[in-house]
Specification:
Layout lengths: L8 E5 L3 H12 L3 E5 L3 H20 L6 H6 L1 E3 L3 H5 L4 E4 L5 H14 L5 E4 L19 E6 L8 E6 L5 H13 L3 E4 L9 H17 L5 H16 L4 H6 L6 H18 L8 H14 L5 H22 L6
Parallel strand pairs: 1-2, 1-4, 2-3, 4-5, 5-6, 7-8
Antiparallel strand pairs: 6-7
Length: 319
């Protein structure tokens, strides 16, 4: 199996928002990148969108040598062409188990010896779509956070049959590409990020449904409160610093409150259609649907500024 140091060429299968983001990540890190998407329109747009994104990144110091990076991008006309000469493949096709199963089979058939495959799956575990794939021991989930070319963290989730060497190589490759890998010891639905995000969303919807606050005030509580600390500290470090005696002192003081809150939410509620419509109505009053693309551009600009600032100021997490 390839070591991360021997990987020079990366294949991208699926070049939508996630796949094109990955192509930017690897090209800027010095890898040759071979890109395939079954939609000719998507293939035709990859280089333009990559150039635009790289220029924005360069404006805040997150990218350099853009022309050289763009020169490392090659558009392929078939999946086999993108995969057969690649040392590592990043699959980013539609999030549907049947689609991913079919693509895993095709990638496995075209793999060169030693090549490893990471899937950008955001919640479907690799065991659900690689069980029958050729060379299944070389497949694992390598899940980025949107937008992949800006947000540093990447989740690595092995299937039960994924070789340890494949996980190790993928981790080191992600680090070479300038990302921060987090490795799960085994599969769980939703992985880390979506389980944590889901817990917060479930409580946010419950508070909205019960009329305790508006969607805007719930958003403000996170963006101007919790989110400020969470942008550079995780939940355990946050509470470790929030009591004189550290984490154990915090737990002694506040565990009864959090236990009581958890007991009050024992039964999962779901998100009924009328609640989703209520939240959506509040959001559309604050931001019209036609303004969503511009707001996404604003989000990406804010994220780039934040990542650039944190890169200058913070100490990276210790592995």
């Amino acid at each position: 199996m390839n070591s991360s140091d021997s990987i020079d060429t990366v294949g991208i299968v699926g070049a939508g928002l996630v796949g094109s983001g990955w192509s930017i990540v690897f090209a800027l890190a010095g890898f040759q990148v071979r890109i395939f998407d079954r939609d000719p329109g998507v293939r035709d747009d990859v280089l333009r969108s990559a150039a635009s994104a790289m220029r924005e990144m360069a404006s805040v110091g997150l990218a350099a040598d853009i022309d050289a990076a763009l020169g490392r991008l090659t558009i392929c006309n078939s999946l086999e062409e993108a995969v057969r000469d690649s040392d590592y493949i990043q699959e980013s096709v539609f999030e549907h188990i049947d689609v991913k199963t079919q693509i895993a089979q095709q990638i496995g058939d075209a793999l060169k010896p030693g090549a490893i495959v990471g899937s950008s799956s955001s919640g479907i575990p690799a065991s659900a779509f690689t069980a029958q794939a050729p060379h299944r021991e070389r497949f694992l989930v390598v899940h980025p956070i949107n937008p992949p070319h800006i947000v540093p963290v990447v989740e690595l989730v092995p299937a039960p049959w994924t070789a340890k060497d494949a996980v190790s190589t993928a981790r080191h490759l992600v680090e070479r590409a300038g990302k921060i890998p987090v490795v799960l010891t085994r599969e769980i639905e939703g992985f880390l990020l979506n389980r944590l995000q889901g817990a917060l969303l479930n409580e946010a919807f419950a508070l909205l449904e019960d009329g305790y606050a508006t969607a805007a005030d719930i958003d403000a509580t996170v963006s101007y409160g919790l989110g400020l600390r969470w942008s550079f500290m995780g939940p355990f470090e946050t509470i470790d610093l929030n009591a004189p005696g550290g984490l154990s002192d915090y737990a002694r003081r506040l565990e009864p409150l959090y236990h009581s809150i958890a007991r009050s939410r024992r039964e999962p509620r779901g998100w009924p259609p009328e609640l989703i419509e209520r939240a959506n109505r509040e959001r559309r009053e604050a931001l019209s649907e036609q303004d969503l693309p511009a707001r996404r551009e604003w989000r990406d600009s804010m994220l780039m500024d934040l990542v650039s600032h944190l890169a200058r100021r913070r100490t990276p997490p210790q592995s």
